Amino acid sequence: MNAPIPTYDYLVVGAGTAGCVLAGRLSEDSQTTVCIFEAGGRDNHPFIHVPSMVGPAIATPRLNWRFQTVPQEHLNQRCIPQPRGRVLGGSGSINGMVYSRGNPLDYDDWARDGATGWDYASVLPYFVRSENNEDYPASTYHGRGGPINVRRPGRPNRLNFAFIHSLEAMGFPPATDFAGPNPEGVGLRQGLIRRGRRVTTAGTYLHPAISRGNVDLKTDARVLKILVADGRAYGLLYECNGIQAEVHARKEIILSAGALQSPQLLLLSGIGPANELQAAGIQPVYELPNVGRNLHDHLACPVLMSSKNSTSYGISARALPRNIANFFEYLIRRSGPLASNVFESVAFLKTAPGLDRPDVQFVFQPAMRPSPKFPLPVGHGHAISPVVLYPKSRGKVTLAGPDPHAAPLIDPALLSAPEDIEPMIRAIKLARRILASDEFKPYEATEIAPGVNIQNDLEIDHFIRSTAYTVHHQVGTCRMGSDAESVVDTSLKLRGVDGVRIADASVIPSVVGGNTNAVAIMIAEKAADLIRNKPLLPAASLSSAN
Ligand SMILES: Cc1cc2nc3c(=O)[nH]c(=O)nc-3n(C[C@H](O)[C@H](O)[C@H](O)COP(=O)(O)OP(=O)(O)OC[C@H]3O[C@@H](n4cnc5c(N)ncnc54)[C@H](O)[C@@H]3O)c2cc1C
């Protein structure tokens, strides 16, 4: 006799940043049952938890899907690495831990373009609900007591102050709060760190939920297909230890497999552009032309300095005694440089007149960039990586074929919009001015990239195309909107097939002017209320905000 097929109220695909939030919130009702599937394993690897080990965490094969783009036509045909977390906590378990929400105007743009109910005043309470901010009191903009601990670096490297003071001397404003009403300017930035350890949604939402007893977690369990009959999704086919099994949903299936793999799973299930599905050997189930379209990401290109002075973080003979002391400080007190994610200061700046918000993020790193061969900085130096915040280029995620184990074809079409290179050229010139300022003189640094031979705009253009990479803020492939062309509606329901919602970075209509982890958390927080039919949190009253 066949065993009955396990059935839960909710099935969540992907225990990444967003999926863990969903499992945590949906299981708050003890009568509700949830099963969450994660293709990766448990989050017990030590590199995940020590903030300064972010490079080694990304470099650990079993924690990372290690995707690549297809050759990028406008980047000298280079394939750009696309790391994604493959472990509980998802990309949030290997990311840079930077806390950033983007610009308030970004969400008002979402709403104007059709994502009704996702304007800044409406989403702000969900950022606040998720947050425990160590640096700011509870207010309209900040939470105390939420699951996600954020804080400024405890003992930032001195080089950060050269960066901050040089920009201030050039007339750029100091930023008091990057998650406040106006995130423009320069200053120390906050990270998802608590008592010297990385904060993930796996640790703060999922693990506590599992102890409630109504959440089943399946690790090393890859979902292969959404099962659909008569226009409704009723279950999933998944694979664990080489064995395939079915599981059914009483209420809903929630896709949180991320911006590359939520569309991949829809396509594998026959939901997408019919002609492409047929070409890939998949029988179409429902024609939804924009699944996988609108892929975009942030491009970065660093200005790198090598320094004779050993102030920066890094491995060297001169820094050995200090590094040994830092190691023991971390072991004993969980503080010091090993408790830092290295991204300790930032500037959000307008690089041209007339802009209504900053168009570039200058990520400052008081360290050399690790090489592909060794994931920790060797020697001393510092870098500014300008990140262009509002790219116009749009690409797509498609299938290589019908095999659910194959990597998706990822084509963000970087720099396909010719105007996307202009802010990067302006930003590289500005970064060079900052690094040549008096504040950096004591560090006796010389530029190693772009290098003195690269000066005019054409040379900088070539340099960008031969060295730029992305900062892993892929979004947009299951775009949310009110128009019929969007993939999900503003309640995150999949168009055309009942019983499925999508809640992860794939639904973001256009990338925010910041980083995307906190945005994925906010989306999942709001999705949880939509799914369990709870009244939404009241929109923030911004006119009287404190
Ligand atoms: C290296 C790196 C650095 C970054 N740095 C920062 C930063 O400092 N700050 C910031 O704000 N953002 C950063 N980001 C971006 C941020 O982490 C992501 O935007 C965010 O984690 C996206 O969340 P998500 O839930 O959409 O996807 P993810 O967190 O990627 O979760 C998707 C999960 O689904 C699982 N999965 C996929 N397919 C299947 C399947 N078929 N079956 C079962 N499970 C599946 C995956 O293994 C993964 O665990 C970074 C990202 C990376 C990769």
Blueprint of the fold:
Elements: E1 7-13, H1 17-26, E2 34-37, H2 46-49, H3 54-59, E3 67-68, E4 81-82, H4 104-112, H5 120-130, E5 131-133, E6 148-150, H6 159-169, E7 185-188, E8 193-194, E9 197-198, H7 201-210, E10 215-218, E11 221-229, E12 232-240, E13 243-255, H8 258-268, E14 271-272, H9 274-279, E15 286-287, E16 293-295, E17 299-300, E18 303-307, H10 320-333, E19 345-349, E20 360-365, E21 381-388, E22 395-398, E23 409-411, H11 421-435, E24 445-449, H12 457-467, E25 469-470, E26 500-502, H13 517-531
Parallel strand pairs: 1-2, 1-13, 2-10, 5-6, 13-26, 14-15
Antiparallel strand pairs: 3-4, 7-19, 8-9, 11-12, 12-13, 16-22, 17-21, 17-25, 18-21, 18-24, 19-20, 20-21, 22-23
Bound molecules: flavin-adenine dinucleotide.
